[in-house]
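Support request from a user on the community tier.

User writes: "When I paste my structure tokens into the form, the page sometimes reloads and wipes my input. The last time it worked, I copied everything first. Here is what I submitted, just in case something in the input itself triggers the reload:"
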């Protein structure tokens, strides 16, 4: 069904709904409403295939964007600022084709919207890929930092053979000057705050949000000179941010970049061990460096390897790798051990050129599957072994490597 045909049918169905209201407000209304839902659903399917810009509504509110996922019950729509909403198909009664091609908001409109949202005491600075909202006088410095990390992460994937894409919309980062403001934002964003939460990346808003109470960018990192190749100036800025905030920026930005250059799908489907393993592997500066291969000590995530060696490895049972691969629930139930194992296993794969090529193939397999379909433990393990071979044998090699490290 074409867009024009869908729109004509929709117009006729809306007229039928009005007629039903006037003449037979019982059965007639129900049938007409059902017909509208069916027509809108058909139009949404056509729009999903065409990647166009559309507007859908439920009679109370309307939403403009492109369809990035569609099931019998849910329409996932990405708006012109990159936010994703999951709408109930049965509630949609309006459909309109806005443009045959999805286009994001203009940079100026995007910037103005952010400035309005965080007006008092904050400013917005733009870079090649980022719009950063931060306390006045500091947004430009933070912008250079986020852009630097973006470049490091993008290159990390690209030079290792991963297929990378350009983000469809500018990436947004919000840096709050206090924990109190951050907590208030979490509540508005429907994220549960906690005393240990310093920041997060949201799949829905596509934003990184964090706070830096202890030490915002210092004067030492505020040179107006542009950083030379290798982003040494930006690493100086990172060094002048409080330790926890610096770690948070790197980790959450790694997530954000991965989800926007095609490594992961924002609709889900990528196993948690992959997402968190890659993020923790990329935390050390030596793993993201553009200046060539660093010393092993520069590439290790010290926090994760200490936990793995001292807390996880002594009581770790064989078969643990298969459990993490097969189930996100298992990962969440054993969180700190699972984080350390995800880091260790991804590091093991990255350090071997042959295993690294297998990892690229595995991520491509994950990327090609429908993220909206259930991914059973059996399917997860089967996909893993189809690329890496028998998980038990691989686990033996992995543990031997870590014991020698």
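"...and here is what came back when it finally went through:"
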């Amino acid at each position: 069904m074409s867009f024009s045909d869908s729109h004509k049918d929709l117009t006729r169905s809306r007229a039928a709904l009005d007629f039903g209201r006037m003449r037979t407000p019982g059965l007639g209304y129900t049938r007409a409403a059902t017909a509208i839902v069916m027509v809108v659903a058909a139009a949404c399917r056509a729009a999903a295939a065409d990647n166009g810009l559309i507007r859908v509504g439920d009679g109370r509110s309307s939403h403009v964007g492109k369809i990035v996922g569609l099931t019998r019950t849910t329409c996932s729509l990405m708006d012109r600022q990159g936010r994703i909403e999951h709408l109930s198909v049965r509630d949609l009664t309006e459909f309109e084709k806005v443009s045959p091609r999805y286009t994001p908001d203009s940079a100026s409109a995007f910037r103005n919207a952010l400035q309005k949202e965080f007006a008092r005491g904050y400013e917005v600075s733009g870079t090649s890929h980022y719009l950063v909202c931060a306390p006045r006088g500091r947004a430009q410095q933070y912008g250079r930092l986020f852009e630097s990390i973006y470049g490091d992460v993008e290159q990390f994937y690209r030079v290792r053979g991963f297929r990378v894409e350009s983000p469809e919309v500018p990436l947004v980062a919000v840096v709050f000057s206090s924990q109190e403001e951050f907590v208030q934002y979490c509540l508005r964003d429907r994220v549960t705050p906690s005393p240990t939460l310093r920041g997060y990346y949201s799949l829905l808003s596509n934003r990184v949000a964090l706070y830096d109470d202890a030490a915002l960018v210092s004067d030492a990192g505020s040179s107006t000179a542009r950083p030379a190749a290798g982003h040494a100036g930006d690493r100086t800025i990172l060094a002048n941010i409080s330790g926890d905030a610096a770690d948070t920026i790197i980790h959450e930005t790694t997530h954000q970049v991965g989800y926007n250059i095609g490594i992961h799908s924002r609709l889900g489907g990528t196993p948690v061990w992959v997402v968190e393993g890659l993020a923790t592997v990329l935390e050390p500066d030596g793993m993201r460096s553009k200046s060539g291969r660093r010393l092993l000590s520069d590439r290790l995530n010290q926090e994760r390897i200490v936990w793995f060696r001292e807390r996880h490895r002594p009581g770790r049972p064989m078969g643990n790798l298969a459990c993490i691969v097969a189930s996100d629930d298992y990962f969440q139930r054993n969180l700190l051990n699972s984080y350390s194992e995800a880091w260790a296993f991804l590091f093991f794969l990255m350090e071997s050129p042959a295993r690294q090529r297998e990892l690229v193939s595995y991520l491509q397999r994950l990327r090609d599957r429908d993220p909206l379909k259930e991914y059973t433990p059996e399917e997860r393990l089967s996909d893993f072994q189809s690329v890496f071979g028998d998980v038990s044998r691989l686990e033996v090699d992995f543990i031997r490597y870590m014991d020698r490290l």
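Agent notes: The reload is a front-end session timeout and is unrelated to the input. Confidence is low (pLDDT under 50) at residues 1-29, 214-233. The chain is about 55% helix and 15% strand. Escalated to web team.
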